[in-house]
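User: For my dataset I need records formatted as: sequence, then structure tokens, nothing else. Please produce one.
Assistant:
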Amino acid sequence: MTRTWQVVIDEMVKSKQGMQGSTRERYVRSFKEHALDSLRSLPILQTRPEHFLQALQAGTISTNDILRRLHNFALSMTWLPWPVLTRKQWPALHYGEKRGITWEEHQAIVAAEYNPERKVFFELAWHVGAAQIDLVSLKAEDVDWQNQLLCYKRRKTGTPAILRFDEEVAAILKRLPESGPLFPNWSKFTSSNRAAHFWHICQRLGFTGISLHSYRYAWAERAKTVGYPERYAQEALGHKSKAVELREEDCAHAKGERGE
């Protein structure tokens, strides 16, 4: 059998079966880039450096990243006897600067959003700093009103996130359903569709350099600025630590007392 790069793609996807849903979705989507089309039917043993360079020139930073992964996977499986490109031949990876959304940008986006459910989503994103897939997946049962805690597991890693909320956040939560999904309609959109909607709002407002994930960066930046203890920031953002594990037990106990 003549093994092509499409075979490499298919086998690499199979090897990532253990990935969490949203992460695997992004991973699979990255292989659909048009810049890779010229390589799909190309036998890997007939691949020349110019084939890779052509794909890299036609693509973006994402193409550079995913093609490196494919190349390394083929090498690790001994399907390639030697590298197609040497380390020095690969174009450098230059990622764009990541920053948090500002308060002024956030306010303008909330004002520009006409849908009530999505408007509340953006309001809550500012205060919670959750990844978009985690925030949109929240259920009313994740809200511990007695202790004023939001307790949920991150979709990407399965790590628990625990955030204590104040009266301002409580007022926002009270505008959402009292049972079931907090965002029953918005959660039906794919992550890419939600990101595209946010991008279109930013385009109308003339904002650049921000995405939905910028809410997460903004929360972390504010926490650092005010000297928020690292262990509590880890709990809130869902980063793994022993303290997070202990607080997860507290949340589980609280839910048990509520009969959930």
